[in-house]
Amino acid sequence: MDDHQQRRGSIAGKLVLGVGIVLALVSTIGAVFVASLLGSPAVSSACTPTTGSGSGSISLLAPGTGARVGATLYGGPGDHTSGSVGSSGVNLYQHPDSYAELGGTTFQTATALGGLPYETPLRITYGGHSVIGYKRDIGFGGGPIDGLPREIDLWFELAEALRIPGAATDDWAGAVRVQRLPATGAGNTLAQTPQPVAATSPGDPGSACDGPGQTTVPITAGPRARLLSNGLAAAPASAPEAVKGIIAAGNQIVGKPYEYGGGHGLPLDQVAPTYDCSSSVEHLLYGGRLLPVTFDEASSYFEDWGAPGPGKWVTIYASADHIFMYVAGLRWDTHNAAGPDDGTPGIGWHPLVRESVGFVVRHPVGL
């Protein structure tokens, strides 16, 4: 039920100019959080995380100016070194307006554009054409291009929208102009400090933020979950209640010991002393009210469960030997499968994207 093999993850963006396989680093997408998942926001407590903005060290000037930077392309039929999964586990074919900030192997170290938070919009201009792209990936980077530091990878579909020659064959490298978008009222609203929100499992044993008679979960602004310093996860304020319930249930069992067969044979509304991969995933899915309380199956069952392909909020990777999943961008797994920078070694939330070869990809219907 848990392979316990140190599989190497696969970064969606190209990690080096030609180092097609830094694959230990490839797993690497992400230390995507270890103190934060969306840039480097402060967290005042496990229950009341606060948000902040990126470091913004690049000089991105007012609309119509901006800065010229070196850019390359990744993804698509001409690129055999990059996959189609972004650093949060999202399918980039479903998000064709994506770019990768370069400079490092995690969201914290990829700072070529200033360490922009996840989904930061930038206006990108090439040859008189402009598009709005969103940061959904990261990459290691490479040497200068046209005398400019290489700072950004463009997903090939975004490059096609810019009418960059060779976008479909991944044979282009050159300069683009990037600039921040002006602040908006909505953006300011999203930057306000969020408050804890009750999850959808009031009868369950609670997380660290529970009050009498209810299960609560830390929440955060933005579209992605955030890994907190205590190992718990904060759920996006915009997430469906089922997703908040999944995260709340995960927070209940973070750090539980791994034991093959552990957690099986108990109702899912009980917290077991030990878990394996399938029993832990089932506990989380029950927290989102996606499984009955008596459900008890091996990991292979989920190869046909739900709907095929990745989901918007939840994506499950199942095989006969193991199961793990991404929930709002954070990976739930029973060990640090993507290497030593992949968070704590045991059951819980992990910041990096791991290798998924040999797994069947499914998602809960509607999520």
List keywords for this structure.
367 residues; alpha+beta; Barwin-like endoglucanases; endopeptidase fold (from Nostoc punctiforme); 2 domains; six-stranded mixed barrel; six-stranded antiparallel beta sheet; 5 helices; 11% helix; disordered N terminus
Largest sheet: 6 strands, mixed, barrel
| CATH class descriptor name of the largest domain | Alpha Beta
* CATH fold call of the largest domain: endopeptidase fold (from Nostoc punctiforme)
- The CATH architecture of the largest domain can be named as Alpha-Beta Complex
Approximate helicity band: 10-25%
From the spread of the alpha carbons, the general shape counts as elongated
Overall pLDDT: 74
Structural class: alpha+beta
Can you list the strand order of the major beta sheet? 1-5-2-4-3-6
Low-confidence stretches: 1-64, 184-215
What is the number of independent domains?
A: 2
What is the overall number of helices? 5
CATH superfamily of the largest domain: endopeptidase domain like (from Nostoc punctiforme)
How much β-strand is present in the residues?
15-25%
The count of β-strands is 17
Rg measurement, Å: 20 Å
